[in-house]
Every structure is written in C-alpha cells, then in structure tokens.
Amino acid sequence: MTQKNSVKKELSERSETRLPIASGSFYPSDKLELTERVSDLISQSGQNPLAGVKALIVPHSGYDYVGSLYGKAYSAISDSSIDEVFALSGSFFHKLESVSFCDLRFWEIPNGKVEVSHRLDKIIHSDDPSIQNILKRNNSVHMGEHSIEVQLPFLMEALGSSFRLIPTMIDGVSPRLAANALVEQIDQNDLLIGVSELSRGYPKDYAIDIDKVAIDSILQMDTDKIQSEMFEASFPLVIAVVNEIAKAKSWKPQLLEYTTCPISQENPRKVIGCVAIAYTQ
C-alpha cells in the first residue's frame, strides 16, 4: 500500500470511528495505565470464570468508584469464547422511542479499537412488521453517552480484541417488543450486556433497602415489578429487556456483587446502588 493510500485509509477509518468521551474521567486515558488497571481489577476480583454466561447487568459509574464490581462481572466471562457483544444502554441526554443502533465501523478507546458488527444492517432492516418501526440507525445519540464505552476496556481484557460490538440504546418502547426485536439475533456465541445502575441519591442504609427489593425482582425475573414505580434504576427498561430475553432463552440470573458508591467525593452521604448480575445457560 502506498503512503497516499495508507493516509486515505486512515482518514476514512477516522471518519467512521466513534471516539472516546469518558477517558480521563470515568477511566484512565493512558493506554498502559488503563490496561494494567483493568487487568488488576479482573485478576484480583476473587470471582472465578462461570460456565455458560450469556448476559451481564453492569453499572456505568467510574472505575474509581465501582472498579471491583466491574472486575467481578468481567472475570465471570474471562474464559468465554464470544463472537459478538450486544451492549444495551439507555440515554442520559436524549428522549428516544426506539431501539437505536450505532453503525460506525469502530469504537475507539485508549488501548485499541473495537469493530462494530457487520450484521447491523440486517438487524436494522428486519422483515418483521411488528418491530420495523422501532429499529433505528442513530449514531448521533451514542456520541455523548459513556455507558457502553466504559465497558470496552473490560471486554477487551476479558475476551481479547476479536469480538465485534453491537451498540444499542433503548428508550420509550415496550420491553417485550424490544426483546422480540433482539432475541432471535443473539446467537449461541454472543454476549448480552445491560448497562444500568439502581437507586441514586439516597443515604446508604435506605439505598441498600430499596436496592434489595430491586435485586430480588431481577433474580425473580419479574418484568412487571422491574417496570413498576417501586423499582428504582437509571435504566429500568434496559434491565427489563435483558430479563425478557433471558426468559425467552431460559437463562438463569445469579447475583455476583452489590455495592454502593458515593454520588461524588463532595457528596459522600448520598450514594448510587450498583449491581453485577450474570445470566447463565
């Protein structure tokens, strides 16, 4: 390849790459520091790899706050052979009524690039009339959101760099309809990740009490309770969709770890509830 063609290829890839927005805040921006941090969190988690993990529920807070919980979750899949990862999140900044995918070719983080699945076009253009109207290509809504991005260093450490990503943002749709749109697309060697935290802004003792109710609802796979006003989470719809897909595929949930972290260093008395749950086949 000539130098001119090499430059053209690099520029083309750059224009088709979702650049990191959370490095240096939610996780280290230095490649070596990030790699070592994530490796240590996984190796020191005390969590053995689990057989047959098909889905995870994980948080989206910074590594300084819930790094050990990320380590537990991703250690559970560290012996897995995964082709593609369906990463589901909600939006902090956009009101959606869709299942919105990002089909840029790559997602970049300091320690490398993750390729986006070539199957996205087929998924978006479903032949099923009941779900055609909710499946959208919407790259812009993914640009300023951190929830999926912060999972990528752990995914690369646990799975290597050969997996492909299906970045998915869900809001404003029925959990059962969204699950129907995705369930047949998730193959045997794929992994489903639902990114959500639990309660936010309460004193720790109260947060633990209401989060226990939420966790029980997840472990009981009770979508109605997950969708109720009593269930507090940043993205309850994401959890409900994972739950519906798990029920359809007969996956079973198990609690890996629950913890709380302060909303900020300036406000340590109010906390966020964070949980790691694995679904196994």
TrEMBL record:
Q: Which family does it belong to?
A: Belongs to the MEMO1 family.
Q: Which CDD domains match?
A: MEMO_like
Q: Which organism is it from?
A: Candidatus Dojkabacteria bacterium
Question: What is the protein name given in its UniProt record?
Answer: AmmeMemoRadiSam system protein B
* InterPro entries cross-referenced by the UniProt entry: MEMO1_fam (IPR002737)
Q: Which Gene3D superfamilies match?
A: LigB-like (3.40.830.10)
Domain of life per record: Bacteria
